[in-house]
Amino acid sequence: MQSNNHATKRPEDHVIVIFGATGDLAKRKLLPGLFHLAKSGLLPAGYRVIGSAPHDCIMTDNEFRGHAKDACLQFGLAKPTGTAWKEFESKLHFACSDADNPKPLVDAVARAEEGIGGTPKRIFHLAVPPSAFGSVIGMLGNTKLSQNASVIIEKPFGYDLPSCQQLSATVHSVFGEEHVFRIDHFLGKESVENILAFRFANGLFEPIWNRDHISHVQIDVPEHISIEGRASFFEKTGTFRDMIVTHLFQVLGFVAMEPPTTFSAKSLRDEKSKVYQAMRLLDPAKVVRGQYAGYRGEQGVAADSDTETFTALRVDIDNWRWSGVPFYLRSGKSMAQRRQTVTLGLKEPVLRMFPVTARTRQDQRSNEVVIDFDDPGWICVQFMTKQPGPQMRLKEVEMVFKYSDSFHRMHELEGYERLILEAMLGDQSLFTRSDEIERIWEVATPLLDNPPPVEFYEPGTWGPEQPLRNLIHPYRWHLPDGHKD
Ligand code: BG6
């Protein structure tokens, strides 16, 4: 169960079923990702991929292969050419599945298993809206397709605590928790997992990672894109559920956790879970909800929509390590830049010995550790130096590590690819456990019950300016920092 130790291990033989195979996620991530895994020799020796969708989206095998090829051409790291593609393509099949008529899928799985031989495992990827989870899970149970099988479930896992608990009960009525992989693709990012290596493998950083040395933490994920035609999903979901409850809280778990005793799924998830247990219930007064101007005019969006396309909030973790250290989280659509950063603000040392004129720092930053976790990612330590010259003048400088300068990208797997591989290997380290997500919804309840009104912001900015400044006072947002996306 060592997530980092089986990088070159291949999973046992599998039949991989994608529900929602004609949808956006399958096209952008899953089909290109599976092909990249196949081309890298990381899929099992024996496998078949069955795309599935309701009967109104029916395709022949050949049409599905064409669809997958287009997806790889448009979005894939590995281009669909040569023998690698021919071989992958021959393993692709399509079968429609409806809750009241699962036979085409049941037959397709049986044919695939026969083609592979032996007793391959089954893995079902639910790339469908949360409203469809229940009926798909029920169908897998009724048809016994759930035997010898695991299930990958997309976010959001529920909309609030009661719906999350209900969903957990439905899933657990068919699958044991050890077969459930709640996927959050941020945890598949190299630079997010590297937070653990950075923290726990370095004597330089580990000792300062606490309230004695860190004044505040920022997890900042602005996006330049708008909702990109996803109105029906976004109107129901909003940024808080789409990004904060999922991706940003998972990153927070890695930044804030205590050292796990081993890199096993249980230790890692136990430590992450303890962080959420120690989180204070969210205070709506410490939350800024925003909506970009023009959102209400997008096709499929209500003219009086109250859905937030932006959220910034303060989170407090009441434990020995973090008591008194605010965590500021921010994410939004149509913002000035696409960035994915964690910033640790270090407490300022006593600067008395330096003449006041040496400390012209109002507009400077200093003593920050910045982790940019967008692939391929970099880390920057900012500190003060003496400017050369006869006077003692302080100047901020940087030490930077860049993944792209130090490692070959060819070894890299995209977040989804890494996680699909881990799920087939049966390692749950990088997946969310039911108690974690239930506690997160519990923490979110005061905000969901009492959301502040949305504040408008212009597309291409950093969000509603004054409320954001008030939220983070006396600190300041690290972004923008001059780095290009
Ligand atoms: C998805 C969200 O999970 O993550 C999107 O639904 C968001 O709204 C996306 O844009 C961001 O992911 P990435 O791969 O760009 O980091």
Low-confidence stretches: 1-6
Ligands in the model, by name, code or SMILES, are: 6-O-phosphono-beta-D-glucopyranose
- Give the H and E element order: EHEHHEHEHEHEHEHHEEEEEEEHHHEH
Strand content: 15-25%
Largest sheet: 9 strands, mixed
Kindly describe this structure.
This protein has 485 residues and is α/β, with parallel strands linked by helices. The chain is built from 13 helices and 15 strands. It has helices spanning 24-39, 61-75, 82-90, 103-116, 130-142, 161-174, 190-200, 231-256, 265-278, 403-406, 415-425, 434-449, 465-472; strands at residues 14-19, 47-53, 92-96, 121-126, 149-153, 180-182, 214-222, 287-292, 310-315, 327-332, 341-346, 368-372, 378-386, 394-402, 455-457. It has a nine-stranded mixed beta sheet, with helices on both faces. It has a six-stranded parallel beta sheet with strand order 3-2-1-4-5-6, sandwiched between helices. α6 (161-174) links the parallel β5 (149-153) and β6. α1 packs across α2 and α1 packs across α11. The longest helix has 26 residues, at 231-256. It is globular. 44% of the residues are buried. The structure holds 6-O-phosphono-beta-D-glucopyranose. 6-O-phosphono-beta-D-glucopyranose binds at residues 223, 242. The site of 6-O-phosphono-beta-D-glucopyranose has 2 residues, from loops.
Topology:
Elements: E1 14-19, H1 24-39, E2 47-53, H2 61-75, H3 82-90, E3 92-96, H4 103-116, E4 121-126, H5 130-142, E5 149-153, H6 161-174, E6 180-182, H7 190-200, E7 214-222, H8 231-256, H9 265-278, E8 287-292, E9 310-315, E10 327-332, E11 341-346, E12 368-372, E13 378-386, E14 394-402, H10 403-406, H11 415-425, H12 434-449, E15 455-457, H13 465-472
Parallel strand pairs: 1-2, 1-4, 2-3, 4-5, 5-6, 7-10, 8-15
Antiparallel strand pairs: 7-11, 8-9, 9-10, 11-12, 12-13, 13-14
Helix pairs in contact: 1-2, 1-11, 5-6, 6-12, 8-9, 9-12
Bound molecules: 6-O-phosphono-beta-D-glucopyranose.
6-O-phosphono-beta-D-glucopyranose (BG6) binds next to loops.
